[in-house]
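It is worth pausing here to work through a concrete case rather than discussing structure prediction in the abstract. The textbook approach is simple: state the sequence, then state the predicted structure, then interpret. We follow exactly that order.
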Amino acid sequence: MTNELVYGAYILVWPALTLGVLAVICGAVVRDVRRARKSGEDLV
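Step two, the predicted structure:
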């Protein structure tokens, strides 16, 4: 039973980590877009 809980927790941690990384990346892109619009520059 303990092994099942450990394996289950291990499997469920990866989606949470992925979601966190995705949120950080999206936040950085939004910040860069706003900064580019404010300064009148192209994003690329």
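Step three, interpretation. The helical segments are 2-39. The chain is about 85% helix and 0% strand.
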